[in-house]
Every structure is written in structure tokens, then in C-alpha cells.
Amino acid sequence: MAMTATADHARADPHQIGVVVEHPGPAPKRIVTAYGFWVFLLSDIVMFSCFFAAYAVLSGQTAGGPKGAEIFEQRNVAIETVCLLLSSFTCGMASIAADVRNRFWFYLGMTVTCVLGLIFLAIEFREFADLVARGYGPSRSAFLTAFFSLVGCHGLHVSAGVLWLLTMMAQVFAKGFRADVLRRMMCFALFWHALDIIWVGVFSVVYLLGGAP
Amino acid sequence: MLGKLDWSAIPFDQPIPLVAGAMVLVAILGVLTWVVVKGHLPYLWSEWITSVDHKRIGVMYILLASVMLLRGGSDAIMMRIQQAVAYQSQGYLPPEHYNQIFSAHGTIMIFFVAMPFVIGLMNLVVPLQLGVRDVAFPTLNSVGFWLTATGALLVNVSLVVGEFARTGWLAFPPLSELSYSPGVGVDYYAWSLQISGVGTLVAGINLVTTVLKLRTKGMNYLRMPMFCWTTLASNLLIVAAFPILTATLAMLLLDRYLGFHFFTNEAGGNVMMFMNLIWAWGHPEVYILVLPAFGVFSEVVSTFSGKALFGYRSMVLATMAICVISFMVWLHHFFTMGAGPDVNAIFGIASMIIAVPTGVKIYNWLFTMYGGRIRFATPMLWSVGFMVTFIIGGLTGVLVAVPPADFMLHNSMFLVAHFHNVIIGGVLFGAFAGFEYWFPKAFGFRLDERWGKAAFWFTFLGFYVTFMPLYIAGMLGMTRRMQHYDVAAWRPWMIVAAVGMAVLTIGVICQIMQLVISIRNREALRDRTGDPWDGRSLEWATSSPPPVFNFAFNPDVRGEDAYWEMKAHARQQSFEHEELEYQDIEMPRNSPTGFVCAFFAAIMGFALIWHIWWMVILGGIGAFATFVVFAWRDHDEYVIPAEEVARIDRINIEERRSLVSMAGAV
Ligand code: HEM
Ligand SMILES: [Cu+2]
Questions:
Q1: With CB atoms counted within 10 Å of each terminal CB, which end of chain A scores lower, N or C?
Q2: Burial class, B79, CB count within 10 angstroms (exposed 0-12 / middle 13-18 / buried 19+)
Q3: Under 8 Å between Cβ of B562 and B129
Q4: Which of B422, B423, B428, B481 has most ligand 1 atoms within 8 Å of CB, for mutation?
């Protein structure tokens, strides 16, 4: 290359450090996409951390309303958690299936993931509806405000994930395992796993710590 | 059907916004008609609106910022006149109107002038400096720009339909809660920022990934131009801080729309939580703005001194130090709110520590100039002007970071003077320096130097005449955001500041004249070499304006100041492109995704502000559909054949060879 030739004179090691590892050039698209998505996930986690912080600040502010221990149903939460963790496993299966280009296992893995996600959402929705019906909606107290927002924000993410999941399945159906479809699948898997990690936080901070009498 | 929207939203009884809005409308319609009648619409659509080329997107960002600068500037003129006349009288702006103006002014200047200006410069320049063909996510880049434009649009719509917030540029609760601000003003504010905030986050992710993952061969981290480093730092801050803003505004909106109690006075809400959250974003934000400006100055000072940047490594270190420390000082924005002496002391000291890396930078620039052969072209004038001005701003910053002093100066005109001192003297001067410096790269011709210098001097002097009096007024006890006042001692300073504003306005007019004159004389000002300033980094290694693919061959970098070394070497040898095998280049296809997405976002934002729920759903479905359609397309790249690449590149090489042989003769 021309630039190779002309740049020979440039100081390769201006600060005499000894070792200079030459940067090999732009990364391949797969890496770039996944990296960018990671950065996005980090920013999303920052956003969640604000809601966590709000929950920590407001969890004692019940304004005469119920405390956490009075309204949390540990059994439901346990089922939710199992659903979500299992769905991460099946999502991983679907990713592997996509990598080896096996449609059957891909569709199966994604379908199970979707069903588990929907069960999770259904339980959460019931919990919310039940609380609102008992007069413990988010405007009852600052504590409930923070609770509904944190858990609801996670729920919204799961809903978006389900929408994405269905789009992903449709894409594989229509386009097969094309390079760009596979890249998106990788991002989806990252997203789904990240939601799991956040749920672990929600579970511990909201339901375990907040559920303590 | 239309939610809260009816005819009473149009302020028929208030001539100023109505006339201003009508003028803007006429101007937009005029431009549109001109575009359509002249048949420019297809060109605009295919070459700009749907473009995913980082250079075009950068230019559009800067255009947006410039237009909004005029809008924000008009607000500033109105406020300065009001404070000059409103001594023991009501002046000409009623309080509710004055409050909207200062809120809109701050919001616009930070979010729709400073942000798009620096993001535009980074977009335009960073891929070129890294020696690559595009950013990491070209289509998302376009989405980010158009979402920012949507936010700006909504703020301007509030001028004629409804009202804007009266709460200041950060909408502190409880004032911004529904009980005290029942109108749509705060909603306009919050939704505009939510939408443009998503755009900014997208830009941040994109640029972080670009710098970390897309560098040409041999572009090790410690060979990157300084501007790439500050871009990295600034965008890391965007990624880490903007989600906080999004979350905070979401909480405020939940309070307002669904009766939540995050920040209300009742039911256990906590106002101080808003202060903490908003400033945990807000202080990093000021460094998001000023770090890229520092990068511009580093490039400009080194180029126009004809020397490599002094203390490159300490500069990198200082940049990254600022990046980290800027997250640890937020509490200095509310020393007076009762955190107690220990906490205040810690944050006061942290705030002073952040001035240290900034000082390191100033010395580095000075030592870069020392012993250099300095050319005082317009970009260099802005840089020197910056150094002088920013030091004053930094010093007053350190002063208000001393808690006991801040108890006297908090929320006074002194504070107003401080942050204008750093934002105008730092960010705006940096933006102008970058504009003058890279304009020839973007458009292929230089800007007129005489008008440019006039613009600098008027702005520079105007700045001092406007803002130094505000320091004094602050020390005389004048608080910020006053619609009228009765203290005689303040009056003269307000009049001086108004005069300064007039001088600043002349500066802006010079800037506009510079653009007009330069476009008229563009043939004479043509830059054929691609390297009008004798530059040092890779953006100058390609033609002006660069071809879509930026570089025919990805440059191979062997040291700092990559292009400088290449030139030094090429004076002895000749360019050897001919022996090379040109290859096909794949480039991303244009896409209307960004524009269409922003269209739906605008509809959704407007509907949300006015509680028009069916329209919200419509907009949401539209936005989702756009993404699916985008994900469905089969060809996202097109190929530029090798012959075409060769033809374009050979022209550039010819021009360049004549430059080198001329330089060799000197
Ligand atoms: C040398 C480093 C700096 C220090 C120590 C510093 C310190 C401070 C302090 C303590 C305040 C709050 C004062 C009060 O509210 O009473 C403040 C306000 C402010 N500063 Fe700085 N500052 C520095 C640099 C900057 C820079 C570089 C920028 C922007 C580019 C900036 C922009 C602002 C803004 C916008 C405000 C006012 C926000 C508001 O209340 O509306 N500062 N600064
Ligand atoms: Cu600050």
C-alpha cells in the first residue's frame, strides 16, 4: 500500500517503550455490532440503576399505605424467577441452534423462550392488577410509586423483548440464517440475558430486602 | 378527540410569540417552496435527508445547531433588553412570558445548539481522523440526528401552539409538578428532551464503538489524534450520563401523567432525589460539551503552531481523568441545600481537583505554542481567545466550588456569569474554531478570513462586555432569573450588559456575512489540495470534500501525527498510488429510516404533550413498523467499482503532487 511505503519514516515508537503492538485495523462487523450493543446494554443498566436508587430512597415512604412485606407474594415471585431463568437457558439453546443453522431447534428454543416470557408477564400483570384493585396503585405512596416503576420498567423491557423475539422468528422464517439476521440474533440474546441479570437485582432488592418485615 | 388541544392554545393575545412564530413559519414555507419549485427536492432527499454518510450527517447537525443558535440568541437579546429596562417597572415582557424565555433559552442552547454542534463536529471528523470509511452504525447515526431535530422542532412548536416551561432549563420540582405547572409547558420540555435524548444516546454509542473498534491499521490508541481521545471521553460520558436524564425525566413525567409520587410534596415524594439525579447527569453534561472543544483546540493549536502537541500523553491522561472525576462532583450544584459541612467539603475539594487536569491542558497548549511558528488564522484566534476566557471561567468555577463562598453566590448573577464564561468561552469558541478549521474539509473551499476575524473580535469583546458586568451584579446581590428589580446599583451593569449583547449580535452578523461572502467567492477560495492548513492528522490526507468512501486505501499508520509524517516522507519520494491495485468498495446504502422514525416520533411527542391518545398509538405503531421494514431490507450496501475509485483517487493525487512539489521547491 502506498501509505505503508510513505509512513515508513514515521516514528514507530516515539516514547521508546519497547513493545509496540500494531493495531490490526477495523474489527469485523460481527464484533462491531455486538460491541455497540454491549455499550447500549450498559447504558440501559445505568438507567435501571436510577430506578433502583429511587426505590432505595423511597422504599420507607409508605405514607400510611402498605409496606413491602404486606403485599409481596413470595410464591409468585419464585415462579416468575424460575420462568425467567429457564427462558435464558432456552434462549441460549436457540442461539446455539442459530449458530449451527438448525431451524427446528431454533424455532423450538425461541417458542419456549417466548412462552416463558409471556408467563412471566402474565404473573406480573396479575400482581399489578391485584394491587391496584386493592387500592394500592402507584399513586398511593412514594414506596408504591418506586415499586411499580422499577418492576414495571423491567416488565416493559421484557415485553419489548417478546416483540423483538417474534420479529426475530419471522426474520429467520423469511430470510433464513443470513449474516445480518445472525448478528441481530446475537444482540437479542445479549438483551434477554441482560434482563435476567436485572431481574436478579430486582428480586434481591425489591422482593427479598423489601419483603423483610 | 384532540385531547387538551383547542384554539385557546394559540396565543392570539400575545403578539411577540405569534409574530415570531409566523415569521419562522413563513421562512420555512418560503424555503420549502423554493426547494420544490427549483426542483431541489429529489437532490435534498437522496443526498441529504436519507444520507447515512457521516460527513453529511455531521454537516446537518451543525446546520441544526446554527439555526437554533439564532433562535436561542433572540431569546437572549429579549432577556437582556428586559433587564436593562425593567428597573422599577415591568419592562415589556410579562413575568409568565419572561419565565418561558429563560427556560427556552437554556434548554435550546444546551440541548439544541451546543450538543448538536459538538456531535456534528465529531461525526464529521472522527472517522476521517481514524482513517476509516464510516462510523460503526451509519443508519442509526441518521436516526440519532433526526430524533435530535425532532426535539428541536417540538420546542419551536411550543412557541405558537401552547406554551413552553416556566421552570428553568432543568425543571426542578415541585414547581414542575402538575400542581404548580398545570399547563403543557413542562410536557413540551420533557418530551422534547426525551426524544432528543434518545438521539444523543444513539450518537454516543455509535461514536464510542467507532473509536474503540474502527481504527485503521496501525492506529494504536496512543497514536490517535487528540480530538479522537476527547470524542471517546465525551461519548463515554454520554453513554453513562444520558440514561440518568432519561430516567429522571421519565419519573417527572410519571408524576405528571399518572399521579406517581417521585418528587411530589405529598405521599412521601422526595424533591432532593430529583436534584441528585439531574445533577448526576448535569455535571457530566458540561464536560460532554467542553471535552470535544478541548479536542478542537488541541488540533488547531498544534496545526497552527506547526508543532506536535506538547505533552500528548499527559493530555490523554487529563482527558480521561476529567471523564472520571466529572461524575464525582455533582453535589456542588446544591451546597446550600443542607447536606452538611462534611459532605460539602468533600464535594468542594473534588470540584477543585477537576480544575487540575484542566490546568494541565492549558499549559500543554501554551507549551505547544511556545517556540512554534504560529499562524494567526481564524481558528487559531478562537483558540487563543478561548484560553484567556476559559481561565477566568475556571477560576470563578473554583470560587463557587468553595462552599462558604457559594452560599453567597449560589443562584446569583455571578453564577450566570460563571457558566456563560465556560460555555461560551469554552464550548462555543471551540465550536466556532472547529467550524472554521474543518469547513474547507467539508465543502472544498475556505472561509473568508477577514469576515472571520471580524466575527471573532466582535464576539470576543462582546462576550466580555456582556458577562463581566454580571459578575459584578452578582456580587452586588442580584439573583438570577429576575423579571424586574428595584435596586438602583444593579441598573448600570444591566445596561452595559445589554450593550455587550449588541456587540455580540454584530459578531453573529459577521459570521453570517462570512458564510455568504465565502459561498459567493467559493471559486477563489477553492481548496484543491485537501490540505489547506498544512495539517497533521489523516482527515487532511484525502480530498476536500472527501469522496463518500473517504480513503481509496485504508491508510497504514506508523506513529503520531500520521499525515504529517507521510508528507515529510513524500517530499523526498513521490506518491506511489499508481502501482496499487484499486479495489471495489462497499458502502452502506442511503435509508429514509431515520427521517421516517423521527416523523413518527414527532407525531407521538406532540400527541403525548396534548394527551391525544389515539395519535400516540398510531405514532408508536408507525415507529415499530419503520424498524421492521428497515430490518427486512435485503441489500444494505452498494458497491463502488474499482475503476470509479481509481478515477476519483487519481484526481486527488494529481492535485496533491503539485502541492508537494511546490512545497519542496520552497
Ligand atoms: C474548573 C472547573 C469548574 C468548576 C470548579 C465549576 C464549579 C461550578 C459550581 C460549584 C457550580 C454551582 C454554583 C451554584 O449553583 O451556586 C457551577 C455551575 C455551573 N457550571 Fe461550572 N464549574 C467548572 C467548569 C464548568 C464548565 C467547563 C462548564 C461548562 C462547559 C460549567 C458549566 C456550569 C453550568 C451550566 C452551571 C450552572 C447550572 C445551573 O445552575 O443552571 N462549569 N459550576
Ligand atoms: Cu458542576
A1: C
A2: buried
A3: no
A4: B422
What CATH number should be reported for the domain holding residue B82?
1.20.210.10
Is residue B18 in some structural domain?
Answer: yes
Structural domains counted in chain B: 1
Q: B574 with A1: CB under 8 angstroms?
A: no
What CA–CA distance (Å, rounded) separates B550 from B58?
A: 14
Q: Say how far apart CA A121 and CA A158 lie, in whole Å.
A: 8
Report pLDDT for B297.
Answer: 94
Other beta carbons less than 10 A from residue A21's beta carbon: 6
Give start and end residues of each alpha helix (H) in A59-208: 68-71, 74-99, 103-133, 142-175, 179-202
- Exposure class string for B398-419: b at 16+ Cβ within 10 A, else e: bebbbbebbeebbebbbbbbbb
Residue B410: inside a domain, yes or no?
yes
Would you say the CB of residue B397 lies under 6 angstroms from ligand 1?
yes
**Domain, as residue range, for B17:** 7-659
- Distance of residue A12 Cα from the nearest chain B Cα, in angstroms: 5
B431: Cβ below 6 Å to ligand 1? no
AA identity, residue A24: P
**Which set of grid coordinates corresponds to residue B333?**
450544584
Q: What is d(CA B645, CA B513) in angstroms, rounded to the nearest whole number?
A: 37
pLDDT in tens, B15-33: 777 777 777 788 888 888 8
Q: How would DSSP label each residue in B346-371?
A: HHHHHHHHHHHHHHHHHHHHHHHHTT
In chain A, residues with a C-beta closer than 8 Å to the C-beta of B575 are 2, 6
Dihedral angle over CA of B342, B343, B349, B355, nearest 10: -170
Owner of C-alpha cell 460539602: B344
Q: How far is CA B100 from the centre of its chain?
A: 22
Q: Are A113 and A94 in contact (CB under 8 A)?
A: yes
Residues B256/B180, Cβ–Cβ less than 8 Å: no
Is residue B303 within 8 A of residue B436, CB to CB? The reply is no
Ligand 1 atom nearest to CA at B401: 10
Residue B666 belongs to a domain? no
Q: Is the pLDDT of residue B169 over 60?
A: yes
Q: pLDDT at position A110, please? A: 93
Cross-chain CB nearest to A141 (options B204, B261, B555)? B261
DSSP structural state of residue B183: S
State the average pLDDT for chain A: 86
Question: What pLDDT was estimated at residue A2?
Answer: 37
Name residue B361's amino acid.
K
B308 φ, ψ (degrees, to nearest 5): -65, 155
In angstroms, rounded to a whole number, what is the distance separating the alpha carbons of residues B483 and B86? Answer: 7
Cross-chain CB nearest to B556 (options A1, A61, A146): A1
Homologous superfamily (CATH) of A28-211 is Cytochrome c oxidase, subunit III, four-helix bundle (1.20.120.80)
Say yes or no to pLDDT of B80 above 80: yes
- DSSP secondary structure code for residue B332 in this structure: G
Taking contacts as CB-CB distances below 8 angstroms, the residues of chain B near A56 are none
Q: Which residue of B has its CA nearest to A143?
A: B268
pTM for the model: 0.91
First to last CA, chain A: 71
Please identify, by atom number, the ligand 1 atom nearest to the C-alpha of residue B390: 27
Amino acid in position B364: N
